[in-house]
Specification:
Distance between the termini: 48 Å
Largest sheet: 6 strands, parallel
Structural class: alpha/beta
Strand content: 15-25%
Number of helices: 13
Bound molecules: S-adenosyl-L-homocysteine, iron/sulfur cluster, FE3-S4 cluster
Length: about 450
Amino acid sequence: MKIHIKTYGCQMNERDSEAVGAMLTEAGHTLVAEENAADVLLFNTCSVRDAAERKAKGKIGYMRKLKQHRPDLIIGVMGCMAQRLGDRLLAELPHLDFVLGTGQTHRAPEIIAQIAADRVRLAETAAAPEEIDMLGAHGRNSWSAQIAITRGCNRFCSYCIVPYVRGREVSRSRESILAEARELAAAGVREILLLGQNVAAYGLNGDIRPPTPDHSPFAELLEALNEIPGLERIRYTSPYVSYFNERLISALVRCRKVCHNIHLPLQSGSDRILKAMNRQYTAADYRNKVAELRRAIPELTFSTDVIVGFPGESEDDFRMTRDLMNEVGFEQAYIFKYSPRPGAKSASLEDTVSEEEKLRRNNLLLADLQERIGRKLAGLVGTTQEVLCEGVSSRNIGRWTGRTGTNFVVHFEPDASVRPGALRQVRITRAGGVSLFGELL
Ligand code: SAH
Ligand code: SF4
Ligand code: F3S
């Protein structure tokens, strides 16, 4: 059958879609980019904010018309919204054929075959069997791949639905990660992105207490990956700030291939709000950790996630977030308006900040960010950067795009020898609003 997969949400979902796509291909199906050409439409969904769910539901609802014309069409939902709503989705969307929770993704080929044969409607949302070593990364473009090293989350930040829809935190075995990374490198992959809700808790058996300063299985994993011939860059997302202990920081310093960019979710700069969010650090802890990391690796760039309008967030709390963000000087930030998630702890708190006010706070942080990014980019003009070449720019077919280890996007004119995955030196000649322009050396 021809199968079209549409993915919403985070990189974990992208990776799951790739893995499911690979399983379906192995089972004899063909993946198609056009939804109109498909016999099966599979929506991999996100629940992190209400808007994410509404978007997916809107799209799936719209497919009803298509199904009226083509009654044989099979429509399925997987991912976090599938897990959260289960068979309620079948009731809400009468043209939906199946719902596959986050622990049942590996059964997609079997379920699709069953529906094609019997035209039953199914919702499977049981937790993942323990022995599953997670779906390996199959999907890859030629030079970059994502590898999930943990699944689930045990932290239960009060606003967050992820621990409920992704289940308990489990680390994948070190052997299987290393084997996969070696295989990918041998196949030409130059960059890997390690994925997990809290990657730095890798190998800690789900214990939510940060380890002692000399203990970090994540650091050991990075060191082993750093030795793999052919791999050039190792990225990871997201680590929780409290896990950057001495052991991990010294590994970051030693491992040449580990990129000098950290996505370090802050969420809020107010201790009162951090506490209400069940984040186990203070603004001072965060500030000190960034300073310590910068002392160890001066070139480090930081990106972050911030929520505005958490219940009870006052103008003062917001100002503390804004000040801390400006002080740290993030090179990138993802700012979210608080969205109550039924099932998460904070949903029982009154959503005190109006939508308008959330938007105002959101826009203030975005304006700060834009101004700051502009300044940072301008400061890089005249420098020479090592860039991992990605391919033809999506904006201008005469140019190529690449990325620095510090995660700045660079556009440049290609020469005859440029290849995706190649590392090249680029002299930065000009700064745009969000990216850099340069010349290959
Ligand atoms: N595991 C990652 C975060 C995954 S969710 C981590 O802890 O680093 C990605 C981001 O979505 C979070 O960092 C948070 O900023 C935001 N987010 C999560 N739940 C939210 C909610 N209910 N409303 C608004 N933003 C939310
Ligand atoms: Fe959600 Fe917190 Fe877990 Fe991240 S660490 S997935 S924000 S509960
Ligand atoms: Fe990712 Fe959304 Fe699920 S952010 S883990 S797809 S709720």
